[in-house]
């Protein structure tokens, strides 16, 4: 196994699994990009969705969900990966990752960037070295995914309308029927579109984006946690705190203390 690590959890790696290997369940705390070189993988998500990737494909895993991995029964599986903690990802990049597809072709650009990340000799590195490579790899993934979808790289219009509605109503008490109405399709069809193209449900995206808004407000404002919870669409401070800890591994006070004091990232709580 090859590893290149930054304090706080940013990591490039490469690993080989024997035929029939399994692992999990585990809770995904980072944005993880899996680049399949040989074999195949199937990832079962807690909400019932299944993601698959074969050799020559890249798979995006989002923070906050439980995952169970199964690898090819007939051949070994070799893949490289990037673990990108949310605190190392700019808000705009996080939003585009949540809106983008979960699978893309493994292009030469993706291969080149992950090789650069792995070429740091397996030592503990500074964030200033690895973070730009991590961002470049995610941007290369989004470019590859866009080119694989349609000539202009857009998801189905119903998904775009749904995501726009969610982003513009994060603080409102919205539910699946309202999102589907804004998208112009039935709730059942919208669920199918989201699972097919994004790998998760509209409501899961809603709560992820609400949590991200709350995290950004904690870092960038002096509002109280209760005010931030309300502004981000949470019914209570306790619900916001649970979602923040599940998505980022930290309490609101820990998250704010880190960003206000600009210390090294606090490792996730056990």
What does this structure look like?
The chain has 270 residues and is of the alpha+beta class. The chain folds into 2 domains: 2-149, Regulatory protein AraC (Jelly Rolls, Sandwich); 157-261, Arc Repressor Mutant, subunit A, CATH 1.10.10. The chain has 10 helices and 11 strands. The chain has helices at residues 91-99, 108-118, 127-149, 157-168, 176-183, 187-197, 202-220, 225-231, 237-248, 252-261; strands spanning 2-6, 11-17, 22-27, 31-38, 40-45, 50-54, 57-61, 66-71, 77-84, 103-105, 124-125. It has a 7-stranded mixed beta sheet, covered by helices on one side. α4 packs across α5, α7 (202-220) crosses α10 and α8 (225-231) crosses α9. The longest helix is centred in the middle third of the chain and has 23 residues, at 127-149. Mean pLDDT is 85; it is low at 263-270.
Which labels suit this protein?
270 residues; alpha+beta; Jelly Rolls; Arc Repressor Mutant, subunit A; 2 domains; 7-stranded mixed sheet; 4-stranded antiparallel sheet; 11 strands; disordered C terminus
Domains (count)? 2
Distance between the termini: 24 Å
Question: What low-confidence regions span 5 or more consecutive residues with pLDDT below 50?
Answer: 263-270
User: In angstroms, what is the radius of gyration?
Assistant: 19 Å
CATH class wording of the largest domain: Mainly Beta
Q: Portion of residues in helices?
A: 40-55%
Q: Note the beta-strand portion.
A: 15-25%
Relevant CATH superfamily of the largest domain: Regulatory protein AraC
Shape: globular
- Named at the architecture level, the CATH assignment of the largest domain is Sandwich
Order of helices and strands: EEEEEEEEEHEHEHHHHHHHH
Main β-sheet: number of strands, strand sense, barrel status?
Answer: 7 strands, mixed
Q: Helix/strand-derived class?
A: alpha+beta
Determine the mean pLDDT: 85
Q: Could you give the count of β-strands?
A: 11
What is the CATH fold-level name of the largest domain? Jelly Rolls
What is the strand arrangement across the widest sheet?
A: 10-7-4-9-2-1-11
- Specify the number of helices: 10
